[in-house]
Amino acid sequence: MDERYGQHSISFRRICDHAGALRQQDRVKLNAILERLEKKIPPVMLAVYFPNIREPFGLVQHNFWLMNHIQADEAGFPNRKDPVNPQWLLILVIDVRTDNACFMWGYQLDPYLQGDYLNSAIRKAKIPLRESLLVQATATIMKHATSLVARAARLKIKSKHTQGLLPDLPAQTNKAEQ
Amino acid sequence: MSHLPYRLLTLIASFILAFNSYGTTSQDIGEELPFPTWDDKDKEANMKGTWWEKTAILLPEKPNNAEDETPEPIIMAGNDIMAVNPIPEDFDKVNPHFLPGYIRPVNGLSDPQSLLDEIQSNDIIEMIKLVKEKYGISLYVSIFAKNQDMPPSINAPALARQIFQNGETSALLHIHLDNINATQLALDPQLNSALGIDGSYKLLYTLKQKASRYDNPSDQILESLANLGTYIAEQLPQHQGNQQGVQIHQDIHEIDGVPQVGIVLEEKEKKEEKSIKELIFEAKDQLWLYRFPLIGLGATLIFAILFWIYWRRFHVVRLLRSEPDIRLGAPHGASQSRLFNYCQQDGKQPESVGRTQIREHIRDSA
User: Fold this and answer.
1) Contact A44/A150 with Cβ under 8 angstroms?
2) What CATH number labels A2-161?
3) Cα separations (Å) of B264 from B21, B223, B226, B228?
4) What does DSSP say about strands B109-110 and B81-82: parallel, antiparallel, or unpaired?
5) Which of A167, B141, B226, B340 is the most core-located residue (most Cβ within 10 A)?
6) Model-level pTM?
7) Fold for domain B96-246?
8) In whole angstroms, what is the distance from residue B24 CA to residue B216 CA?
9) If you measure CA to CA, which chain A residue comes closest to B356?
10) B198/B307 Cα distance (integer angstroms)
């Protein structure tokens, strides 16, 4: 995939609209919504990605490549109290050309999310997605996804020792890790 | 001797008279004696108790002070003693012997003078029971003869004070048979205060007016009792009870020349249903009594709603980190969910409008 897509890093932000599906004011509005939702499940970073790939059946590979070539910084994720760590990313991918959507997430969210757990959030916004009401659809999806992650986190944190979860480090140590 | 029937004695006496009057010298032995007579005059005189005066020759002379003596009590079949000699036709005063009977009503009816027969008494008792059952009102009836004077100790208020029970709604009717205008009415203090003086007089007037439609004293009493119970129930809502009221219909039909009257129950009109606002207004006293529990309940509900809103908006779940399971050479993550095609038609959603239009801000390059 590096041969196909390249080895360079991609500067990533909360709203990555490579397909040009949103207007400027839509991006600003959606950015504010995601910023508010992030505060409920720290240190998760929420993002939306509209890819612009032309080859068919290549979305999954492209997503995998993108996830691991992301360069995330505080400029792309402003107003965060926690440090920026791509392993805490939860990305909603919406391909407006092929009408497909999916979630992808980093390693730190693996204990909390499995398989198609979050696809029920996409199903809830099926009608607005079909009608190309992308801001409304994205807000609905991410709102439900946030509540699902929070619910899963509450269950896992209750039995954190058996789930392999580590106690939270102070903020300075987190930055050193980064 | 005193147990022998009087008629038989009279017959024997007439035989003796006839035999003595003719004598053995004036007649032949074989001649038949005339049969003694017993006509209507004799019958009537016997009923009045004056027949013996005609045959005074057979009786010893009456002592001079016989009229001053009080009549001997008559011993009845069961050795009961009747205080009054055969019942005179008119009562001017109530015999003192009956006075205690008026303060001991039997099932609400006081008739110690036995002015009503058994059937009439049973009808009145049944009516009293019916009113008690339907409205919870205790009615009492005292029976007197037509123009009988009663001492003050047994007038309506005096009797009511002795008969009425505490905690019951009670009314007493003093009835003079065949003289409905002499009816007296006594009410318990609660009814008195509810109706007032004017109301009480109006009630008595109404009872007399409605009862005067009937000639039979028993019907007058029954009509009065029914109207009394109905009127009181209408004035006091707690006694309105069932919807059935008690009305007497003068369904008079004659059987062999004797008028027959029946008592019929008829249903009253149903009450109008009250709205919730009216019910709440009526129950405002009870609402005031339970104000603190109601306020507490309302505050609890409001608090629960506010807490739920706060929880949904402000509750934060901080996720804990873990050792990353780095695989496939990926430094950040390798997990994805399955692709979901949101435009697949499953027959449940309407047709998509956007699919038929080209979005303005997306242009396919050549």
Assistant:
1) no
2) 3.10.310.50
3) 66, 12, 11, 17
4) unpaired
5) B141
6) 0.45
7) Diaminopimelate Epimerase; Chain A, domain 1 (3.10.310)
8) 60
9) A131
10) 62
